[in-house]
Each structure stands twice: as structure tokens, then as C-alpha cells.
Amino acid sequence: MGVFMIHAISAANRHLYEDVIEQHFRLRHEIFVEERRWETLRKPDGREIDSYDNEDTVYLLALEDRRVVGGHRLYPTTKPSMMSEVFPHLASVRGCPADPLVWEWSRYFVVRDRRDGVLNLQLMAAVQEFCLDQGIAQVSAIMETWWLPRFHEAGFVVTPLGLPALVEDAWTMAATIDVRQETLDALHERVGMASVVRQDGPRIDAIARANSCGLVAAQRKIA
Amino acid sequence: MSAVDYGREALDFIEGLEAYRRVPDAMNALEAAFGRFGFETIIVTGLPNPNQRFAQMVLAKRWPAEWFKLYTEKNYDRVDPVVRMCRRSINPFEWSEAPYDAELEPNAAEVMNRATDFRMSRGFIVPIHGLTGYEAAVSLGGVHLDLNPRSKPALHLMAMYGFDRIRRLLEPASNPSTQLTPREREVIGWAAQGKSAWEIGEILHITQRTAEEHLATAARKLGAVNRTHAVALAIRRKIISP
């Protein structure tokens, strides 16, 4: 195994990662469409890309040298999000968050040959580490309910926004997850790394970005 | 109740759980909350692997004492069709959905029949699958149950949070290294020297299977995903020397 890190990739430094981003779109198609049969995501070119993949998306991708082995993405909730547009019924009790300090966390994946390893814990550490560094207070997520105990085990503080419902034959729920130093410390200790996220090139200011998205959305509403 | 009422009730219950500082208090809250759905019995338990006994896996329970005695004495967990299905399922299910062949598996039929003698004629179970292969469940039983497509998602979530609260309350606050038994420390020490489970068995005069069992338990206690990871964690926490 070569050099391993989880890279934070945003509009600011994406030019350094075009090959990696491409590879990850194809992996997402392999995993979410071919393997998990989310047919609505199927694309003729074999690249799984949806409306939450754009200039405001931040990707956290685990790289072994240049090979993508897992990852997930973050998206500002000041824009219409997957939860607010596709799954609002899952958040019917507490409502969908729309806040520059809350980012939507989605498309969590691990390549087949890394599923039994420590990578899950590293990926969970990565979302906490990146968000803590950026000042993001919570992530919101549409998640399969059987993952809830796994998040609990990782020390995540998960607050449900409604009751689970069946989505494509899987019990699925909406929740927010707190970003906490103590959660991150415990995960770092467990994976034996002081830091798992690497940011090369120019850095994004996530909160400023979310605020400007919110402003655009508000102006659109007024117009 | 409407779906929204079930949702509010479940989320209020979940929010309230953090306030309990002792397992019996949390169990009282679970008993009251699940009681509103007609449930009379609760068990919060890990599922034993072939080398473990069911009784040591139980985290908390509200079971008739006689039934627990019978269940453990007869090792019913080995033949219980609900336990079998729980290992294979990530979704909650009603006990009646666990398949078995009454002709070919008379033991399975016996568990299900005897349960009805203890007012556990119907039930609902929520499987828990941890990150490192840990298997557990919250199983609820009773006679007259409010079990329908609207109540099940509420029970699903309440059971998972109930499990997490009990699990955390039972976690020792002290350094986890103190949790390893001397034998587990010894086995991890040999594994750190590169010995296989078979070799460790030879060295310690125990079977390979027992050595593997100690390694697996130690790995679980350390929160490791495999043997190599367990060795690394044990060294880092100075449980063994490198």
C-alpha cells in the first residue's frame, strides 16, 4: 500500500484532481447502480453524477497513491439539497435543515476490497475532521437505518429528523450528525492517525461559500 | 395514532434517553415506552458466536425469570429461528416472519411454542450490526401488540437508540486496557510476535479455536477491525510492549 490520505477536493483545488474526480464518478456508478441497483441513478456513460455535483460540492476521497478506494461528499444546505428536494417526507417531524453551518453528507462508498478494514473509521474521521476545521457544526444525511448503530459505535451523535421509511427496499432515515472534537479525538485514536484529511492547493472557505449560496437563493426568491 | 404522532412519540423518547444515568432507569423508560405498544418483555443482547454462551451476551432484560432459566439451560439461542434470521437480516421483523421447518426442526418449533407459555406469543426484533462484526439485537414480546406499518418504523428507531443508550451506560469509564483479561493480553502478546492462532494454542496449551476466540474478544474490546489492528492498538495503549 502506498501513501494513504483522504483528500478534500473543492472548486478551489479541483484542477489538481481531475483524473481522481473522474475515477470517482465511475466508481459511484459501479457501486450505487451496478452493485446496489439504484436504477434511477443509471447513466449511459457510466458516470454517476447528479444535481448535487457542482461547483459547491466538496469531495472527501480516500486515495492510495492515485487510486480512489472510498469517499463521500458534502453539499451546502443553503441550496436545495437531496433531503429538501427528494426526501423531505423523511424529515417530517423536525424539518430539513437550511443553514450555512449545516452541510449535507452523501454518497458514502468504499470499494469492495476495502470493506472489512479500517477505512470506514478513517472515512468517518474525515468528515468530522474536515467539518471541525471549517467550522461546520453539523452534517445532515439521508442514511440507511441499519448504519445508525455503526455511526453510534463510531461515537457520532445522531439526531433523527423523522421516522425511517422504505426507499428502494431499504429502511432509510434522515438525521443530523454533530461535529464534535471528542468524536474526532476518539476516531483518530482508533485509527492511529493524528490527522486523516489532506488539503492540497488553494483552500475553500466552506461557510463563506454556503453563505453566498444562501444569498443567491434568497435573491432568487425575491425576484 | 397517525404516522406523525408515532414520529413525535419516538423522537421525544429518544431525546429523553440521554437523561438516564443508570441501566435500570433506562430500562424502566424502555419498558414504559414499549409498553404503550403492548409489549411486555424486552431483551437487549449481543448474539453469541459458537464459543460464547448466551447468558454472558445479555446487556439488559425484562424477561420472566423462568423463561430466561429455560432458555439458557436448554441453549435455545442455538435453535431459535428468530436468532438465526436476525444474523442474516439488516431489517427489523416480526418473530412470526422467521422461517423454520416444524417437521425437520422440532427444536425450533419448541422454542416458539414454549415462548407462548410466557406471554411471548408475538414479537418484533431489531437487529444491530456493528462496524467490527459485532452482532446484537433488541427483541420485544407480548400478546396484544400495536404492530402495524405505522408503528414499526417508530419501534425500529426507538430500539436502536435504546440499545445505544444501554451500551454506553455499560461501557466502563476507565481505560479500556483494564478490560482485557490476562489470557487475552497474553494471546495478543504472542500475536504481536507474529505467532498464528495454531502456534499460540501450542504455546499456551489451549486449542487453536480457543486462541482464536481470545484474539477475537480482545479485538472487539479494543475496537479493532482485525487481528493486525488489535495488535497495533494494544501496543499503542501500552497493553503490551512492542
From TrEMBL, chain B:
Which residues are in the HTH luxR-type domain? 173-238
| BP terms from Gene Ontology | regulation of DNA-templated transcription
Question: Which Pfam family, an example, fits this chain?
Answer: GerE
- What would you give as a GO molecular function for this chain, any one? DNA binding
Which SUPFAM superfamilies does this chain map to?
A: C-terminal effector domain of the bipartite response regulators, Pheromone-binding domain of LuxR-like quorum-sensing transcription factors
Q: Where on the tree of life does the source sit, at the highest rank?
A: Bacteria
- Which segments cross the bilayer? none
Keywords from the UniProt entry: DNA-binding, Transcription, Transcription regulation
Question: What InterPro entries has UniProt attached to this entry?
Answer: Sig_transdc_resp-reg_C-effctor, TF_LuxR_autoind-bd_dom, TF_LuxR_autoind-bd_dom_sf, Tscrpt_reg_LuxR_C, WH-like_DNA-bd_sf
Any idea what this protein is called? Answer: Transcriptional regulator
Q: Which organism is it from?
A: Bradyrhizobium centrolobii
Cite the source lineage: Bacteria, Pseudomonadati, Pseudomonadota, Alphaproteobacteria, Hyphomicrobiales
